[in-house]
Amino acid sequence: MVTLTGHSLNFTEMKQVLFEGEKVKAAKESIEDVKKSREAVESIVENQEIIYGITTGFGKFSDVLIQKGDVEVLQKNLIHSHACGVGEAFPETVSRAMLVLRANALLKGYSGVRPLIIDRLLELVNKQIHPVIPQQGSLGASGDLAPLSHLALVLLGEGEVFYKEEKVPAIHALTQEKIKPITLTAKEGLALINGTQAMTAMGIISYLEAENLAYQSEIIAATTIEGLCGIMDAFDEEIHMARGYQEQVEVAERIRKYLKDSQLTTKQGELRVQDAYSLRCIPQVHGATWQTLHYVKEKLKIEMNAATDNPLIFNNGEKVISGGNFHGQPIALAMDFMGIAMAELANISERRIERLVNPQLNDLPPFLSPEPGLQSGAMIMQYVAASLVSENKTLTHPASVDSIPSSANQEDHVSMGTIASRHTAKVIENASRVLAIEAICSMQAAEYRGKNKMAPMTRAFLEAGRTIVPFIESDRMFYKDIEAMYRWIKKIPITSVGMENETVHS
């Protein structure tokens, strides 16, 4: 059971909740803070104080005063009017993450909701009722208004949910689990939808996939080095220590570990003096991606425990301040940065694929074909990789540099962070398939060289991979192999490639 406090949620706990079915509960001391904040909201309504979002309209309507008897209608209208997302739904895992993150933010005690709201959010998590939330429609400032409104609809017994592997009306799932719909009162609708939880949820899941892929890319690259009889001198520790980037040093160290005792690698001058950059510069390029991932992880750790509501209530209601914590710029930049970094892993991987299949660049069978000419071998696999990296180049145009004014120019600068997070998720998916293609080609090349000459760790990787994609003895429908390898490398535990001490830490 993961206990949410509003301040201490970490990646390890998110992994447990999202991928291992761990349940969640609210910390008692945090609920006490929530109650005090709620008392402040009720006092504001009772005394008819003029406070944004509690006794006024929203956005450009912030100057419109709302009568005491209309606060419930105001909140319901807010959710209904803002639930206008379009496009395909976020994956269930993202929806689940949004529930957890929204509950955690409310538990900070700055938002003025009743504990009932948090209880309901956590009940949806624990009973695996996941709101159907369209991916498109958020500007990433005023928070993820449209996506979070679709989440809030479910608390009202409206909208749709994923429940027991089906998409059903929310009221059906709530009825099955004996959960009563609630009526939102003052501030609660606004508190549910002012936040960055869509972009952050997508960002967390993308980060976890990116981190795993970055590790897998190194064992795959090491296998490619063997397939091309690569030069190990470029991975000498002193070279990387001389530059000073710790991530670069660590990548080189892992490559040396993977290739220890290999009989397929060479020394400079033995076959050639230098390798191409796609082999020689693996530590520099992959290390730079790791630098980016560390930056992204730091920002996500902050955001998953951040108060992103507006207004925020401090000192038991003595101070209620309208600000802009809902603005997604920190996550927008981080998501764009991560997309660029992961696209580079794919770019250098595709160049290694080319070196594996191009007979002008190696002494292997052309296109790794068992019968060159009669059979095409891996020729079109390289085409596919080239197509994917080209697509990534368009997806990594930064979303965060764009802004379109909204709400009659009241909200005149927005982050587009949710677009950035969605694009980055697609970049990571594309990069995973490029690396799957490299894995197929590198195993084929290494096996041509002689499986018995491989390093123990890369040979273990190859033998495990051969249970997924067999040796290419003749042309076949390779799309099945690519998809099988893609799914496999996404699921390989980090510990299976020798990273026992480098799993995700909070």
TrEMBL record:
Post-translational note: Contains an active site 4-methylidene-imidazol-5-one (MIO), which is formed autocatalytically by cyclization and dehydration of residues Ala-Ser-Gly.
Class in the EC hierarchy, top level: lyase
2,3-didehydroalanine (Ser) PTM positions: S142
A Pfam family assignment: Lyase_aromatic
Entry keywords, A to Z: Cytoplasm, Histidine metabolism, Lyase
Cross-link (5-imidazolinone (Ala-Gly)): A141-G143
Catalysed reactions, semicolon-separated: L-histidine = trans-urocanate + NH4(+)
Zinc in keyword set: no
GO cellular component: cytoplasm
Lyase in keyword set: yes
InterPro entries reported for this sequence: Aromatic_Lyase, Fumarase/histidase_N, HutH, L-Aspartase-like, Phe/His_NH3-lyase_AS
PROSITE patterns, per the entry: PAL_HISTIDASE
GO molecular function list: histidine ammonia-lyase activity
Compartment list: Cytoplasm
EC number: 4.3.1.3
Superkingdom in the source lineage: Bacteria
Pathway entry: Amino-acid degradation; L-histidine degradation into L-glutamate; N-formimidoyl-L-glutamate from L-histidine: step 1/3
GO biological process, one term: L-histidine catabolic process to glutamate and formate
Entry-linked NCBIfam families: hutH, PRK09367.1
Family named by the database record: Belongs to the PAL/histidase family.
Protein name listed in UniProt: Histidine ammonia-lyase
Organism for this UniProt entry: Alteribacillus bidgolensis
